[in-house]
Specification:
The structure is a homodimer.
Chain A (H helix, E strand, L loop, with lengths): L6 H8 L3 H8 L6 H14 L5 H8 L4 E6 L5 H16 L3 E6 L4 H10 L8 E3 L6 H9 L4 E4 L9 E5 L1 H14 L5 E5 L5 H16 L9 E3 L4 H14 L5 E4 L2 H13 L9 E5 L4 H4 L5 E4 L2 H16 L8 E4 L2 E3 L2 H4 L5
Parallel strand pairs in A: 1-2, 1-3, 3-4, 4-5, 5-11, 6-7, 6-8, 8-9, 9-10
Antiparallel strand pairs in A: 10-12
Helix pairs in contact in A: 1-2, 1-3, 2-3, 5-13, 8-9, 10-11
Chain A binds a DNA duplex through helix 2 and helix 4.
Keywords (chains A, B): DNA-binding, Transcription, Transcription regulation
Protein name (chains A, B): LacI family DNA-binding transcriptional regulator
GO molecular function (chains A, B): DNA binding
DNA sequence: CGGGTTTCTGTAAACGTTTACTGGATGAGG
DNA sequence: CCTCATCCAGTAAACGTTTACAGAAACCCG
């Protein structure tokens, strides 16, 4: 665990200058003899270049960041699964930031860009505040935001159409003859919470159904919160015949509660989730869910970032991923294998 | 996106030397006046220290690594969930390496330690080869290995008792009156595959049951492979009344196949998984599973690493996490809420 | 007010690379 | 054989910090 060899060590052993060592190691033209001596000295010493020194000089860290609220959430996991291999293939390491639903933490990550320990960042912010926008504008490294940002924000952006996603789900439930369609949301002051709430409120009238606020219940984006919210909703509105849940975790909670209450899914109550995570096919009955294209969003974000890294002066780009309804047993009662 | 301010910029603006700037920023004693001027200059300029320069000088990167085969696997996810907050609380960033079941990749990660971009590493190796051992010995930064390593290996080590875990599960199934207990394993040339295979083979005789190789089937540690393996096993041994699966994903595959074959779980076939991941409570029926303490292992590994970082000369330590059987509906038919 | 402490600040070196510049050696062409 | 171009290799500076050292300033006390 002693100090490792540096190019100076190599230079001494090979009897050349450190410049020659550097040149050989970087594949610049050198006399065959010098090259041979340097290479074998390097091999014998087990030389590995020091990344801090390299970064300091080259002004690149060969690291990229991904920041999200909570690694436990399968949505982010789906993104990471796409992002990691792309980063790796492009020669970048992945630095992970889980901000734990803490806004100050998010800002810290953005400020951290100034330390230049990463060459770029993909972030999925919970909210986009004025402070976020300031940091985006001042950032000294490229940023890709997953989630909507105001027009003109100087970052690449990947978004989905929540409105359409909710419309797909509600339309599906309606087409199945359901008329009392409950909605279980997460906190409405988050980006997805707000979008999904608004979308639900406008999807019903579009189908000729009244918007009934007592069919809406809010918890958090987790299974147990979802279960509690559904329990409240069921008590208040015992005649509901369908539930749209703002994510799959909430939908799992719904399944738990409905099962315990003796309601059959989907015969008595049809249940649909959102995000179409891996959990959807593990649940029983398998969960109908609106895919918000998490994997695609991850991939698109990584591609945008990598592209910008070798073309810094491009105009910011917006990629929109289309939601897609994945129908499974929890609404139709037929198993899709 | 232009070049950021450095301590030199600050020094000029504040009319002091760079040494004073550095001292103020590091909280070393300074005259109140100098301090005020430096701080306000730093604030006005939006100064953020350059991490490469800092690392180069201080020989620490403030980054720690976690390397595993596949981020998609919920076992590793459970570990990350524990590791990340501990690292963060100790002031370290997390660099993630998913080696994609590629051994050369694992070795690369170990070699990367020489670049000193991380101050330490937690690794969950697939196999521990001679080359691994060489790298461990030569490593210039502390390593914690999750999974067994030979006695005397100079790394901290967190392990579980697979033998006992399998014994718990088999014992449970036996106590429920099951006598034809199949075993669905992953590749036996991996660390967990080998351990679990050996453990199964010795658990049965200990209970007075014969070890019947035709009750064993091998696939991979994934759901679809598991399903295929179970299908083969069922065809060959239609009278089996219990299945032990070497991880939860395989067990999920087993549930799929059994359901499709019209076998009731647990009445006809009791199913137990291993690892007790989140999936176990999402599955239906909820999965009895042997917890190998993934979360604890993650936590223990992080603690060992952090401890070693401020006490480098300590003898290598081994922490063993006890497996624990978590009984759920897939073996007893009673739901645990 | 002088000597000795104490406290603060500046100069300069160092961390391990990369790279512009310069000079020496070699080879080609006249 | 001289000139000039070409090719390599070495010297030194630079990247942005931290820190040992030395000097300056301030203070205390007799």
């Amino acid at each position: 665990m002693s100090d490792g060899p540096t190019i100076t060590t190599i230079a001494q052993r090979a009897g050349v200058s450190i410049a020659s060592v550097s040149r050989v190691l970087n594949g610049l033209p050198t006399k065959a003899d010098t090259e041979r001596r340097v290479m074998s000295a390097a091999r014998e010493l087990g030389y590995v270049p020091n990344s801090a020194a390299r970064s300091l000089k080259s002004r690149r860290s060969n690291q990229l960041g991904f920041a999200m609220a909570d690694i436990g959430n399968p949505v982010y996991l789906a993104m990471i699964r796409e992002i990691q291999p792309l980063f790796k293939a492009a020669g970048y390491r992945l630095v992970l930031h889980s901000t734990n639903v803490d806004e100050a933490d998010e800002i810290d990550v953005l400020r951290g860009l100034g330390e230049r320990y990463i060459d770029g960042l993909i972030m999925v912010p919970l909210r986009v505040t004025a402070e976020h926008l300031n940091m985006f504008a001042a950032a000294r490294a490229p940023i890709v935001i997953i989630g909507s940002v105001p027009e003109g924000t100087p970052v690449d952006n990947v978004r989905t159409d929540s409105r359409k996603g909710v419309r797909l789900a509600v339309g599906h439930l309606h087409a199945l003859g359901r008329r009392r369609i409950g909605f279980v949301n997460g906190p409405v002051d988050t980006v997805p919470g707000a979008a999904r709430s608004a979308a639900y409120a406008e999807a019903l009238p579009a189908l000729g159904l009244p918007y009934d606020p007592s069919l809406v219940e809010v918890g958090d984006f987790y299974r147990t919160d979802g279960a509690r919210a559904v329990a409240r909703l069921l008590e208040r509105e015992p005649d509901l015949d369908a539930l749209l849940c703002a994510n799959d975790l909430i939908a799992l909670g719904a399944l738990d509660v409905l099962r315990r209450a003796g309601r059959r899914v989907p015969q008595d109550v049809a249940v649909a989730g959102m995000d179409d995570t891996d959990l959807a096919t593990i649940a029983w009955p398998a969960l109908t869910s609106v895919s918000m294209g998490s994997a695609e969003r991850g991939r698109a974000a990584a591609e945008l970032l990598l592209d910008r890294l070798d073309n810094g002066r491009r105009a910011p780009r917006v990629v929109t991923v289309e939601p897609r309804l994945v129908v499974r047993a929890s609404t139709t009662g037929e198993e899709t294998p």
